[in-house]
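Example record for the data management plan.
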Amino acid sequence: MKRIVFDLGAVVLSWRPDALLRHVLPHRASDDASTAHWVREVFQAYGGDWAEYDRGTLTVPDLVARIAARTGLGTHEVQAAVDAVPHELQPVAETVALIDRLRAAGHRLHYLSNMPAPCADILEQREAALFARFDSGVFSGRVHHIKPEPAIYAQAQAHFGVAADELVFLDDHPPNIEAARAAGWHGVVFRNAAQAEAELRAAGWMAR
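Corresponding structural encoding:
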């Protein structure tokens, strides 16, 4: 009976940065090309300023100021985008159903997410029923490390209190899965719930 560890964004919770920016900055993100440009500029492929926000070493006001200075966006525009992030993160029904099947089969479940503390606070309150399905979890913004850094996997494993070989990680970002495997965990690159469940079953990691 492996323990299954879920990433949150784009796995358990929807994450569509293009839709987010088209909604809050329609005058900037007006077509596919401009939207792609602003997704890169604001979120930086989750590196740079946004990585420090995820890590918990950059406050919201400092994040907004840095992005505005770097991109030329107004601070009110950046603030609107930052404020919209937790609202974009909504439960994905198919993944929640997979979580329920795993729980019913007796698996213990955890999460490991690159998530700034302000977003984590909002999500834990708003999605209390969802988080109640997990035994425990780790948010990057509260431990000051981010995936795929080895330290966050070590911290998460210690928090979960089990051997690395007992953990199977589901994440949509291949480098995060590679890092988990380097830490001794098992891993599945998540594309959708049906594919992930099929791979869990094929590997013998999901109770029948």
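Summary line stored alongside the record: The radius of gyration is 17 Å.
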